Amino acid sequence: MNAADAAMICKALGDPIRIRIVELLTDGELCACRILEHFQITQPTLSHHMKILAECGLVRTRKEWKNTYYALNCDTLIAFRNYIDRLNCGPSCSQKAAACSDAGIRKKNK
């Protein structure tokens, strides 16, 4: 993952509805009709949000008859998390922090 890809994902996640959609999809694939049940938005508005999530690679789309199904693209999500972890645990952090945990969380020196 490069900086441009990470910036696209950050921009996509900059909307609370899109963050909530990603949270919903952590439980597995959902059709648009099921996602809509969780929001007070129209189908075209949902399509707009899903297009943004798909364009940055966070969401995969599958059509079956008249229904569209969405699922998280775990490969992209993991690559994004790894990219962010490198920002948290880079060389400059090691001068100020004792170490990074396995989860990539910086331990603070007191």
UniProtKB/TrEMBL annotation:
Q: Which SUPFAM superfamilies match?
A: Winged helix' DNA-binding domain
**Keywords, comma-separated and alphabetical:** DNA-binding, Transcription, Transcription regulation
| Coiled-coil residues | none
Which molecular function terms from Gene Ontology are attached?
DNA binding; DNA-binding transcription factor activity
The cross-references to SMART domains, in alphabetical order and at most eight, read:
HTH_ARSR
Record has NAD as a keyword: no
The record ties this protein, via Gene3D superfamilies, to: Winged helix-like DNA-binding domain superfamily/Winged helix DNA-binding domain
- Tell me any Pfam family this protein matches: HTH_5
> HTH arsR-type domain location, by residue?
1-92
Q: Which NCBIfam families match?
A: HTH_metalloreg (NF033788)
Q: What is this protein called?
A: Winged helix-turn-helix transcriptional regulator
Q: Which organism is it from?
A: Stecheria intestinalis
